[in-house]
Amino acid sequence: MNKHSLIECACGCGKKLISTDKRNRPRNFIHGHNGRGMGNGRDLNRARIRANIWYYEHQQQLAAKRKANPEIYRERNRAYYCRNRHKEILRKTLRHSRRLGISGYHTENQWLAKITYYGWRCVYCKEQLDNKTVTKDHVIPLSKGGTDWPANLAPTCLTCNIKKGAKSVEEYLAYLRRVS
Description:
With 180 residues, this protein is mainly alpha-helical. It folds into two domains: 6-57, no CATH class; 81-179, DNA Binding (I), subunit A. It contains seven helices and four strands. It has a two-stranded antiparallel ribbon.
């Protein structure tokens, strides 16, 4: 018998999946996961390693394909960003924080909980927010020693976030009183 065999996905989608079971035992494979949730860590790590090796071996062909069809990949990236906007913003924020050596970390769920706590409204002008208009404001600016912990975050509209800039909350509220 073969060490690896093709198994049809248990969810009924018709995909053929490779079994990593050494004894070729039938399992309820669903898109690479066995019937016990996410599978054990060893199987997932093996799958990640195989994917990384495959990517490394085919890197030049993939780069040529991307270069030959930039509009397809541009549209794919745009669609992914629209579907996962909060994830992408969080990824960029974490990268920026690591680069600057800023302490603190928050997950997407913590950020969404913070937005929900404020009722999807801007903290400063009380404007109604949605997925496209919400921006992340650091109450104590990063440039003044603020952190990236959830306690230092507030949902704001883009206008207020730009106007506030690196001001503290007190400075920004005083600025708003002077302007109005």
